[in-house]
Design brief:
Number of strands: 12
Number of helices: 21
Strand order of the largest sheet: 4-5-6-8-7-9-10-11-12
Largest sheet: 9 strands, mixed
Helix content: 40-55%
Distance between the termini: 70 Å
Strand content: 5-15%
Oligomer: single chain
């Protein structure tokens, strides 16, 4: 009976791996008819629940109008709920019996139970020969409180700063309706819009491509690991080691931070891998095998434990770790750079400086104030604030035809990557960005085509060697600490030349839309000031 119960409530098994002549092969786990039947009913009820959850505001209003919350309505609903519960229990029983009859599942379950009882390297190696639902996977690395840089960052995503601040009883009662409305908006609509990859229905639709992507990594020698973050979330990671190859690029690790609907199985990891670097991918909280919800505090804890894992378990020094982030993943990257200033550098692809202007541009103007306050409370992705705390190399990759992070679609001058770049340069080289230089830079960034940019650059007659020499001379005398005072004693024309020289080192234009993957041939690490 105990085996039947374990089979009924055990994790789904996807693939079985084996090692043949030093190569890893895999085959799909084949469900029996009974297991397929029970699994189908469970999935159908799960999807129905997800639909009800995400449409709960409209569904609740409809049910109220139709009288479902009256005494008679409650009795009527309870009958259907009871039927659904009985159907669900029956489906679990059928699934459990089907798995009990399957030799492959019984063998997997025995190894899983043995690993839970004794989490030895041998048991974990045997368990690693199976790809199954990740919630049952034992943790490979646990966050250590003694290593935490800023324990105050570990806050609940369900508490906004305003509610944590002391307020009188009258003020709390008056603010309660607006606070409640913002909370409901953030959790019912805001999170799915901000992080659509956390929607289980979307993940179900992408289940096969995600599994195929993960299988490809594992068959190439990838190592999947579960990390326990400071807030208790489990973070699903994949590491592919390129160390020891002919090229020394493998000694550099690139951590990939995905976008709001990206998974490491389908996303950025392939780009640095094909370029020859070692790569570590991870899924946002609530994405794939990672638990939790992708609120800012959970994102901070997730990238924190990923970096610690890379250093302590994978053996990469911070100076050899670079973070490659796309779109909303720039938030995690910028926070990690501030927290670990020794990191080798950042590559920010299609990133923004602050999420608020972007949220305002996508919503009706009449809701601007409400949207701003809600975003500041629950999704305060202010990348530039964290980037100011990092002095290492940064490369901003700007999509020339980006339709997502532009305030006005089709107008590259409104690309928020421009603002990110300008604010970064202003912080690091404040004397170079005077009014005249800013006008020249804005004209350059507003150029819609590469040939127009090339013409503007040529017309300035920038002497790259001279600028490079002056920068080296400055750093030899004053060091590389930011902000640098370089430019205060230069004539206006030379100041503009130096600024444009630095723009070319920090900016890379890619002629593509927001969601086009960056080819490995275009991927490069950020520029570093030479000694």
């Amino acid at each position: 009976m105990a085996d039947l119960v374990r089979c009924a409530f055990g994790p789904a098994l996807y693939r079985i791996y084996s090692r043949v002549e030093s190569r890893i092969r895999s085959r799909a786990y084949e469900q029996g008819g009974l297991e397929q039947c029970g699994e189908g009913v469970i999935k159908a009820l799960s999807y129905a629940w997800s639909i009800c959850y995400y449409t709960s505001p409209a569904l609740g209003f409809y049910m109220f109008r139709k009288g479902f919350f009256t005494h008679a309505g409650i009795i009527y609903m309870s009958k259907y709920i009871g039927t659904a519960v009985v159907l669900l229990l029956g489906a679990y029983c059928i699934r459990g019996y089907g798995r009990y009859l399957n030799h492959d599942y019984r063998e997997f379950l025995d190894i899983l139970v043995a690993t839970k009882g004794s989490n030895t390297d041998e048991n974990k190696r045997r368990l690693g020969m199976y790809d199954f639902m990740f919630y049952e996977w034992p943790a490979d690395y646990t966050w250590d409180e003694a290593l935490r840089r800023d324990a105050s960052e570990a806050e609940s995503p369900f508490l906004s700063p305003s509610r944590r601040s002391p307020r009188g009883l009258t003020a709390q009662l008056l603010a309660f309706p607006c606070d409640s409305l913002r909370y409901l908006a953030a959790h019912s609509v805001g999170r799915p819009l901000m992080y659509p990859g956390s929607i289980r229905l979307l993940q179900a639709g992408l289940a096969e491509p995600i599994l195929s992507g993960r299988t490809a990594f594992l068959e190439k020698g990838g190592k999947r690991a579960k990390l326990l973050a400071a807030d208790g979330n489990h973070i699903d990671t994949m590491f592919v080691d390129k160390r020891g190859n002919i090229s020394n690029k493998g000694e550099t690790l690139v951590i990939a931070c995905e976008g709001n609907a990206g998974f490491y199985e389908l996303g950025l990891m392939s780009t640095p891998l094909k370029a020859g670097y070692s790569a570590l991918g991870w899924n946002h909280p609530g994405f794939g095998g990672s638990t939790g919800l992708p609120f800012p505090s959970a994102e901070k804890n997730a990238i924190d434990v990923v970096v610690q894992y890379a250093v302590q378990k994978l053996g990469f020094p911070l100076e050899s770790i670079f973070i490659y982030a796309w779109s909303i993943g720039g938030f995690s990257a910028c926070y990690a750079a501030m927290t670990y200033p020794q990191l080798g550098g950042l590559v920010l692809d299609a990133a923004f400086d602050d999420i608020v202007p972007l949220a305002q541009s996508k919503m009706p103007e009449v809701l601007s104030g409400f949207i701003t306050q809600t975003v500041r409370e629950y999704f305060n992705l202010n990348n530039i604030k964290y980037l100011y705390g990092y002095s290492g190399p940064v490369l901003v990759v700007r999509r020339m035809r980006d339709e997502i992070i532009t305030v006005v679609e089709g107008d590259i001058s409104t690309n928020l990557g421009n603002i990110l770049l300008v604010k970064l340069l202003k912080h690091r080289y404040p004397n170079l960005l005077d009014r005249e230089a800013r006008m020249v830079l804005d004209e350059f960034l507003a150029a819609p085509e590469q040939n127009i940019k090339l013409g503007l650059w040529t017309s300035m007659n920038v002497d790259v060697e001279e600028c490079n020499l002056k920068l080296k001379e400055y750093t030899e005398q004053h060091g590389k600490t930011f902000p640098m005072k370089i430019g205060h004693d230069m004539p206006p024309e030379k100041r503009i030349h130096m600024l444009m020289f630095l723009v070319l080192q920090h900016l890379m234009d890619f002629d593509a839309a927001h969601c086009i993957p960056l080819p490995s041939t275009e991927f490069r690490l950020p520029w570093k000031i030479a000694s």
